[in-house]
């Protein structure tokens, strides 16, 4: 028996395959006949239990399941529909088709006529993590950030101590950076910037008061020893663990590679063709990797094919399989494609949902013929598109939950508009990489409170008798400065945008004294913990502080206490004026090039 009326592919079958890939919205008709020889027997066959479930689901519709086991014959156009490629497409993206699930989804669309996209809440705030939040500098950083209404998380080991010191409502991450298993990724969700004030504990050998009065006077006033975990464990192993915990959240200066050539490697993705064959067309494309066809003879991917408008077609595309885990790109501002243009307009489609028939966040981009170029697509430029139409009521794009990517060359744009560069025939788009990027100007995402003197213990020709106690006693203090320097090196090598602040001897004096910023690890003196906290916060917002390492002290000598008149406080400093004078690449290690620091 033949159905009395034709079904548009835009209704059942193509609803879940065609329209969601932003192809043509035109209708292409097919009919179903009783001849089942063109489909393999296992295709869409149901067992007894599935039939019972099916009957319950579709008892209210006059369309029978057996219709979908019939041969599909094209009514228009001069070329036949390649059902083999159609089935191959299904298998590639979905694995062996589940008859019940597939057919049920078709009938759901027939009866409901819509697909709802789950709402993903966009993160609207950037959380600042303060590690070592109960220490002298850390707790001041927390207080200042909260006074400014900024979202803060405090990383602490002792919850009771932290709540007593910082307040009962403080948002805590209770963990120990020396124990990697305590740094659970879920705890760091939403963290975009870090101020690290963690430090190995140094205290008087003879003991101290509960308020650490001797320690607060400064190490020059007592005989020091390491209390608790060793410098190696805190300053080096702990730093490595902390960087690994926050790296994905704060982002990398050079971006995150999703596909292609970069960082002396080539990262591939499982691309599959998704052409207008799914709606009866004859266009065909594929995606290959050419190991020598890229820039400077390097590897590149190539999206290539032959596009035709026969049978009301007109698009080709390649799409990745769904990622096994969603890519969290919330630390970044967009995607940059490195490609060799051909003068045509293409689309990039990004999906944030595991389902097949779902909104695709889409951006069109033009290319220049014969030129390698970088095409930047800000996340803010992605349009929510569903079934070739923009969806003004779609949820906002969520860069924390990217599931798949798709490249398309199509006759069609959105909402009935056409691609002005479209032409039938062969096309080829070499694509060497897709990378997430951070918008310029970049600012530090990881600010570390280190220590002046870290390069001095083994510096040739240095008179140690004129150096601070930590430099003279580096070996006795389990190589405290050596491991602090090793921890700094981990930051510099991590790829995270950073700033390293090296204060001289820390004091409990108020902020406000005139300051000296220096580089090369040569100065001695003192500086207020209040001042250092303010410097760290300011560094997070200054492009001039990016990837800089510097020392800081006040102009007030040790012999003179610094006080502030509460009725006439000093003006707020513009720390950016200090940052402007800092230079790249100066760490003080330059003096060690002829000397090896031994541990």
TrEMBL record:
NADH:ubiquinone oxidoreductase intermediate-associated protein domain span: 268-429
Top-level taxon: Eukaryota
NAD(P)-binding domain location: 132-246, 443-543
Record InterPro entries: Galactose-bd-like_sf (IPR008979), NAD(P)-bd_dom (IPR016040), NAD(P)-bd_dom_sf (IPR036291), NADH-UbQ_OxRdtase-assoc_prot30 (IPR013857)
TM region positions: none
UniProt-recorded name of the protein: Protein HIGH CHLOROPHYLL FLUORESCENCE PHENOTYPE 173, chloroplastic
Gene: LOC108819661
